[in-house]
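lol ok so funny story. i was supposed to be doing the assay writeup but got distracted and ended up predicting the structure for this chain instead. priorities right. anyway since i did it might as well share w the group, maybe its usefull for someone
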Amino acid sequence: MTMNILTQGRATASLAAALLLSACAATIDDSGIEQRTSLAIGRDVGSFTITERSEETGGRINYTVKARDGAIFKCYLYSATGFQRAMTFGQTPHSDAICTAFGKGGAAAPAAPGAGGGQCNALLKAAGRC
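and the output, tada:
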């Protein structure tokens, strides 16, 4: 009798832990990530692949994008977690993808000359962008 109560208690604790951990996971699917990435990097869905995907607690998803033309981007977005969606009755949106172009050596790609709409101000000069 004592063994059954202990077994049931452990099973209940395991189930509670699994539910709690799954509530922290991102809820966006691959299609949603591809759509948001397409808009962020200016390329059509299907013209790039998503690799090195990892999730952090709180719904942040980090990933690398490799385009067919060889361009590489490091991206992230925030996805509503299961807990957030439950607490807001499914009304918590996912963020847009934020991407940075990277060069072949892994460093950020240099900015285009005259970045900033063709106007060069003191801040752009200090950043070496014009």
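DSSP finds four helices and four strands in the chain. Residues 26-126 form one domain.
back to the writeup now i swear
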